[in-house]
Structure formats: structure tokens, C-alpha cells
Amino acid sequence: MAGFYFNEIMEVVNTDSQVVYDKVSRINAKGEEGDSFMELDVHSELYPMLPGEKYRMVISNTLLMDGSTIPGYSPEGKQKSLADKFEYVMHGLLYKMSEAKDKTDDGNEDVKVVAYISFGGLQLMVKSDPLKMLKFKVDQKFFLLLRKM
Fold it and tell me: What is the torsional sign of CA 30, 93, 116, 14?
């Protein structure tokens, strides 16, 4: 099975259809465990996402089920793909990483790692615990995969 860089159940908090382009909405979502947050631009006519809905979000460097990044020979249509298990897939480049400090309920500061990935104009910002973001490096190419729960 492919090694995922990020694998989380995300709940849509709100959407804003006036942010980027026609037919594109910016989705704000939080992770079920409460330590992850994302802003994602999606083509809202192809894949509408509504507040309160939950989605499995995976970020992977390959679509191959065995985790390899270089496809071997396989007759057309015979090779299994991660994309077969998801409804919305985008390919992009991680172009920036940073650190953010969030206030916790008890007044302390919690350090988060923020990754920015561009999918040909559509953007993803994912902010999470540093341990969940260890594998991310600038200039890596990734696939974002979404499936409604």
C-alpha cells in the first residue's frame, strides 16, 4: 500500500464561492482529531462540498497502490490506482512551508507546520502538528485525493 504523507478525516466548516475564480470555492475544514486545518480551492461544479460534510483527505506522492513512484509495465486498465478509490483527485507542487503558532484554550502557544501546495492555480494550505508533517519538503509533487464519508 502507498505511504501517505497526510491522511485525515476533514469536516467542512465553511465555504466561500467569491474568493478565487468562477466555479471555484474555497473550503475551510478541520481535522477530526482537532489538530489539523486546511483551506482548499475546489471546482465547485465538479465536486461540491458543503459545511458539515466529512471527507477523507489523502496527500500522496504516487497513485500506485504499491507505493512506487515509477510505473512498471502493465497492460492498459490493468493496474490498480489510488484514484479508483477516491472521487476528486488533483496533482500539484509543494511550493512553500512555514511555521505557525496557534493559541490553545489554556492560553499557551501550539506550534504548527504549514504546507502550501499549488494545483495549477487552485491552492491548498494545510496546517497540522509537526509530527504529521515530517515528510513534506519544498518542490515535491503530490496528489490530493478526496472522498466523501
Answer: negative
Compute the 3-state secondary structure of the chain and give helix, strand, coil in percent, each to the nearest 5: 5, 55, 40
- Integer Cα distance of 58 and 72 in angstroms: 23
**Residue 61 near residue 5 (C-beta atoms within 8 A):** yes
Per the structure block, which three cell numbers stand in for 39?
A: 483551506
Q: Which residues pair with 77 in a beta bridge?
A: none
pLDDT for residue 144 is more than 80: yes
What is the C-alpha separation between 126 and 53, in angstroms, rounded?
Answer: 18
pLDDT digits (tens, 9 = 90+) for 19-50: 667 889 999 999 998 889 999 999 989 999 99
List beta partners, residue 124. 40, 117
Encode pLDDT of 104-116 as tens digits: 767 778 889 999 9
Burial of 60 (0-12, 13-18, 19+ CB in 10 A): buried
> Among candidates 88, 78, 81, which has minimal Cα distance to 2?
81
Tell me the pTM: 0.86
Which cell goes with 135? 515528510
